[in-house]
Task: structure prediction
Amino acid sequence: MYQKYVELRDKNNLTDYRVSKDTNITKSTFTDWKNGRSNPKVDKLKKLSDYFNVPLEYFLEEETTKQ
Result:
């Protein structure tokens, strides 16, 4: 999930700081997700999906390996 967030963040030329300010999700929360210390709760995923204008399922779907 964190990788999907990073792709959207970078695609939109944003920083964790900017996303944090706009969504009220702390920067330390992003760091915890990145380092695997915690998993995002649905309410935070909903904020991110609304912020980036993607469906909530975008973050919930598992990555599939292409063969």
Observations:
- Helices lie at 2-11, 16-23, 27-34, 42-52, 57-60.
- The CA atoms of residues 18 and 27 lie 9 Å apart.
